[in-house]
């Protein structure tokens, strides 16, 4: 009988010894939490595992997540280069090496006789990891330099692709893409809950609940389902620290963050016909609020998603450097912002996209972004 994707994943995990968990560049809290929860579960199964995210810096509001310091920003030593020497005819007396002028010289002194060129063989070891999980990424390019610099590794190692985004390319050898799930954390829960007795503990349950809470804006979005509420209840029963999650995700805003929110809300604009709400932040807004973090800009988006129910598209445009302006765009799943803004090299997902626009000034950048999305909507 053919195994289901969940059963196939478990069988592959059981056979694997060293497992890599990849999350996309500029990850959401859900991606970080799901990756850390899976890492914790694999450790309980006595598997070696690592979580990696390209150019990763742990956001302050994610530092409470258990094992959050385990995430690395790059891969090293994926494969060993092997120099083999046939010593059946001549034994080794001494071995040494020297590095000079970007060159490694290896010195091998024979006990008697000499070594010949044909005694030397060059080869490469197998890759360090024998299984890859990719979480919350619609395609491999979303992994950034992690994929770009290690394409051979990704081509030669089995990939398990876990996501809830309808734009997912199903790039894995095994694809677990659940469009009805609120989050990748919810999918990880459904995947691992029966792997082992007491597999859930307060640490991985806290991570999974944090991912679900962050993705549903503390269960205030329309994506919340009876299943997600039942899962949240199960996680709390397993020891998830709900109060700690809420405190770090929603109740620890600095004065600077609140001032930036105020400036963004004071400049709020609306296109009622296209259900667009947007705000524009200048360098002066950041200076007067005392906030210089993109995390604070993201928190403005989060608040508007909750507090502007009539808006389907939410945009925050802000000045990055003179002439370069960044826009963060949240859209419903029916609108593909990656396609709409493809000429601006967008990053992220189709419903949560970042772009950089070159323009003469902030007003010009605002018009470019709005005209692009309004034109796309009207064509539809």
Sum this structure up briefly.
By secondary structure, the protein is of the alpha/beta class. The protein folds into 3 domains: 5-76 and 128-249, inorganic pyrophosphatase (n-terminal core), CATH 3.90.1640; 81-124, no CATH class; 255-379, Diaminopimelate Epimerase, Chain A, domain 1. 36% of the residues lie in helices and 23% in strands.
Walkthrough of the structure:
The chain is α/β, with parallel strands linked by helices and 380 residues long. It folds into three domains: 5-76 and 128-249, inorganic pyrophosphatase (n-terminal core); 81-124, no CATH class; 255-379, Diaminopimelate Epimerase, Chain A, domain 1, CATH 3.10.310.30. Helix content is 36%, strand content 23%. The protein contains 13 helices and 16 strands. It has helices spanning 5-15, 29-44, 145-148, 151-156, 184-192, 202-215, 226-237, 242-250, 255-266, 283-289, 294-307, 337-340, 362-379; strands spanning 18-22, 48-52, 71-72, 81-85, 92-100, 103-110, 120-124, 131-135, 159-163, 174-177, 269-271, 276-281, 313-321, 324-330, 347-349, 352-358. It has a six-stranded parallel beta sheet. Strands 11-12-13-14-16-15 form a six-stranded mixed beta sheet. A two-stranded antiparallel sheet has the order 4-7. Helix 2 (29-44) packs antiparallel against helix 6 and helix 5 runs antiparallel to helix 6 (202-215). The longest helix is centred in the last third of the chain and has 18 residues, at 362-379. The radius of gyration is 25 Å and the shape is globular. The protein starts with a helix and ends with a helix. The mean pLDDT is 88.
């Amino acid at each position: 009988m053919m195994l289901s994707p969940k059963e196939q994943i478990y069988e592959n995990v059981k056979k694997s010894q060293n497992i890599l968990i990849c999350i996309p560049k500029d990850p959401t809290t859900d991606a970080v939490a799901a990756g850390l929860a899976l890492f914790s579960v694999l450790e309980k199964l006595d598997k070696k595992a690592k979580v990696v995210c390209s150019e990763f810096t742990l956001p302050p509001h994610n530092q409470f997540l258990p094992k959050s310091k385990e995430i690395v920003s790059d891969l090293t030593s994926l494969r060993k280069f092997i120099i083999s020497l046939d010593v059946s005819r001549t034994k080794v007396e001494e071995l040494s090496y020297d590095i000079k002028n970007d060159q490694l010289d290896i010195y091998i002194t024979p006990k008697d006789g000499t070594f010949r060129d044909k005694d030397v063989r060059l080869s490469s070891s197998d890759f360090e990891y024998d299984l890859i999980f990719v979480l919350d990424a619609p395609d491999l390019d979303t992994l950034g330099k992690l994929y770009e610099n290690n394409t051979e590794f990704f081509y030669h190692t089995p990939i398990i692709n876990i996501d809830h985004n309808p734009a997912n390319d199903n790039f894995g050898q095994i694809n677990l893409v659940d469009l009805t799930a609120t989050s990748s954390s919810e999918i990880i829960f459904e995947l691992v809950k029966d792997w082992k007795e007491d597999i859930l503990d307060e640490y991985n349950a806290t991570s999974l609940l944090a991912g679900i809470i962050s993705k549903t804006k503390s269960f205030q979005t329309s994506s919340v389902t009876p299943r997600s509420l039942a899962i949240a209840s199960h996680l709390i029963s397993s020891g998830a620290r709900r109060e700690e999650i809420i405190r770090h995700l929603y109740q620890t805003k600095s004065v600077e963050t609140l001032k930036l929110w105020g400036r963004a809300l004071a400049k709020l604009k609306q296109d009622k016909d296209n259900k667009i709400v947007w705000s524009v932040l200048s360098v002066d807004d950041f200076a007067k609020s005392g906030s210089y973090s993109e995390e604070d800009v993201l928190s403005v988006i989060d608040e508007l998603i909750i507090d502007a129910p009539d808006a389907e598209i939410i945009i925050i445009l802000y000045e990055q450097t003179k002439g370069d302006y960044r826009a963060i765009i949240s859209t419903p799943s029916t609108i593909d912002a990656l396609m709409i803004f493809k000429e601006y090299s967008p990053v992220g997902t189709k419903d949560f996209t970042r772009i950089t626009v070159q323009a003469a000034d902030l007003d010009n950048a605002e018009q470019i972004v709005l005209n692009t999305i309004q034109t796309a909507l009207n064509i539809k």
